[in-house]
Each structure stands twice: as C-alpha cells, then as structure tokens.
C-alpha cells in the first residue's frame, strides 16, 4: 500500500468546508472535553461529503464513539488501540460515508497538528483507504483558546492533503484555524460599527466580518435582507436569482433604479452594485441561477446561514433539503396581502426556521404540488398545456387537467422590507451567537390586533427523508425531494 507523502511538505489549501449540526456538536464537545483542561481525548466519526468545483463539503453524520478500553487513558495525548481502528475500518466497508478522526487539544493550546498527529494521519489515511476507497479521510482538532471554541482540520483526498478552510457549526459560533492562525480574523472599523459593538460586543462584529450569508432571491424581500446584512458588516454574501429588474420591481427593490429596469440589469448585479456602495470591502458572489442547480448548491453550502426570499415552491423545497441533508441553517420568508370589499384585511408575513432537526417543507405541508409541477415545466410544455386548457374552456370542460392558473400573491415594498429585515436580523443573531429566533414557524398579521402572531410547531414524519437522510450530504441523493430540470439555463456566476 502506497504511503501518503509527508504532511508538512504537501499540505494544500482548497475550498473545504466542514458543517456540524447542533446536537452532534454538543455531543462531540462533551466527549472530547471529557479530560479537559489538561488532557486530550478522541473519537472516530462519519462524514457525509460532496465534491464541489474547487473542493469539498463535509457534513457531520454520526459519532462512532470509543468503547471502554479502545483509547489508552494512561497517556495525556490520544492513543487509539487497534480494536477501535479495526472496528471502524470494518464499519466503513458497510457505509458510504467518509471517515474522520477528531480529537481535542488541551485548553489554550493552539489546534495546530503535532508530530504525533502527523504520524496518526499518515497511518489512517493509508489504512482506511483499503476499507473506504474513493472517500475522503478527515482529521479534525477541537480546542478552547482564550474562551473561544477553535477548530482546525485537514483532509486526505485525491492523493493530496487539503486544509479545512471553514467550519460551520449550527447556532454555535466557532473560530476556524488554518496554517497556524485564525481564518479571516478581520480588523473592525470601530467607528462604523460602534452601535453594533455597543449592543452585541466587539467579538460579534468580528464574527460577522468573517461570516458568509446566502440570500436566495434578490427581489423585494431579498434586497431588504441584503442591505441589512451589508450594513451590519457581514463579510461575504452569496446572492442567487435568475431574473432581471422590471419596472414593477422598483416599488420594493432596495438599490433598484429606473435605469436597471430600462437596461434589464439582473437582480443579482443590482444587489452587488448596491452592496459595493454600502461597503466596497464586502465580497459579493452573484449567481444567475436557481436552487437546486449544482453550481448554486456548491456556492450556497459555503455559507453560515441561508435566507430564502422567493415566492417559488421549488426554491423553498430545495432550501429545506439543504438544511437537513447538508446542515445549512436557513430562514424562509413569505408575505401576502389579503383583502375584501376594497379593504385590506390581512398583511401577513411568515418566517420559517429550518434547522437540521426541524421538519422539512413536505412535513410542514408548505408546498402546493400543482404549482410546484407547473414551476418546473419547460416553456414549451407550459405553452402547450395553457393552449389545451383554453381549448377545454371553449368546449365547456374544466381546464384543470391541463393547466391551473395560480393566483399571484400580491405584496408591497414595506411588507417585503419588514420580512427581509427580520430574517436578516435573526441570521445576525445566529452568526454572533447573541440570540436565536424564538419560533419554528412564525406568522404575523401587521394589521391584526397585537399583530395576531402565531407559532406553529410542526411534527416530522418518521418515514420522511428529513429523518432518514439527515446530514447524509450527497450520500442521501436517493432521498432527494427535488432536482433541477435539465431545461433550466445553466447558472452563470457574474
């Protein structure tokens, strides 16, 4: 068996992101800090994985905790006894996941790999390749440094070592560490963010500066969320939308001007231009595309949080699936106006939280199957069905078997602004660790007494994919709830 090259000479940077759900991280921390603060402890784990255009996404699927006697407690560092290694190797032959070794470093010790760690990784990257061929091997380190949780890691993949560039832990801020230093620990403009640091602290501002938020939909709701996030100092935004600006958008599109509609500028380009005027230091990844197209999914999975800001059924369904299969915490926004006899009776906004353990879109009955089907049709099929429906009406027959007109949900700018700003605020709470959304599925009527607020606690079906394929990443593809139609235009990154 060929031995991997020396780690110190061959370590390479790439876009490698490790995502961990909140329940698993709590269990992992309790296990690894069992002998804290002075001694290390370790475990094996299973990771879902996805190969992207420039790296890997790894998702923490399960702990394979040591049994009594499988780690040697006589040493201060981690010593894995052979029965544990063999048990994990044989298990790897029966599951499709990547294998990881995760261990702690003593309190206030940097999470840089030691010479002992190097020897361990050289051994396991070769040993496990015989039992789990074609899969990554990951080595991760967790420690507490000056009161902050810090993670580092490297991955043996395609005959080279890749450094983990980012760790995303659901609802828990952590510091990613690579090549002997914290990743993107940026300097803060103290005067610009004085109000934010006064309210949440300087550490919160730093966390925002090194965070990424994905916003799906750059229309009225999305543009409001993007503006709030940009002004708060989020360091990187991934903005996804397939459409161009039209005159009817200008009533609610933050950063939109008549010239954008006249020149048919894309909404994502409009958003990027607006963010640059707010803060040119913010990186904006602008993508003309839709979820769940592969290029879009690859980009979105590098975010700490995602916001769903479209009125499209397929986008909502895809976002919910990213939450349970890839551990991407998300908030979906929706707004609608209701009226009767010339009076507005309801101005409804809905915010839905999608954490990895929450019920998915299907369990919450948030999709209209007929509308979803029509959204996914090609333009040719849509035209054919609409023509058939018109012919049916002429014959006095119902048009529904061919085409059903879905009522467009009307909305106005101040309502989309409220919805987008609230969603962005809760994303800021997650990123900074200062507050959580106090709801699972919030509905509020802005003209109802006391806002007529309700919170729905939906229950997941035990047979649903969101329960069977949680954190399975691409290994849960057989449980996919939606795929992108082949007739959609290929995504374009501006």
Rg, Å, rounded: 24 Å
Question: Remind me, CATH topology of the largest domain?
Answer: Rossmann fold
Q: What value does the average pLDDT take?
A: 92
Instruction: Report the top-level CATH class of the largest domain.
Output: Alpha Beta
Structural class: alpha/beta
N/C terminus separation: 44 Å
Share in helix: 25-40%
Q: Give the helix tally.
A: 15
Q: Would you identify the regions where 5 or more consecutive residues have pLDDT less than 50?
A: 1-5, 8-13
For the secondary structure, the number of strands is 20
**What's the architecture of the largest domain in CATH terms?**
3-Layer(aba) Sandwich
The CATH superfamily of the largest domain is known as NAD(P)-binding Rossmann-like Domain
Describe the overall structure.
- The protein is of the alpha/beta class and 494 residues long.
- It has three domains: 7-182, Cytidine Deaminase, domain 2 (3-Layer(aba) Sandwich), CATH 3.40.140; 194-368 and 406-493, 3-Layer(aba) Sandwich (Rossmann fold); 370-404.
- 31% of the residues lie in helices and 24% in strands.
- The strands form two sheets. Strands 1, 2, 3, 4, 5, 6, 7, 8, 9, 10 and 11 form an eleven-stranded mixed beta sheet that branches.
- A hairpin with a 3-residue loop joins strand 3 (42-51) and strand 4 (55-64).
- Helix 5 (194-200) crosses helix 6.
- The protein is globular, with a radius of gyration of 24 Å.
- Mean pLDDT is 92; it is low at 1-5 and 8-13.
List its traits.
eleven-stranded mixed beta sheet, nine-stranded mixed beta sheet, 3 domains, Cytidine Deaminase, domain 2, 20 strands, disordered N terminus, Rossmann fold
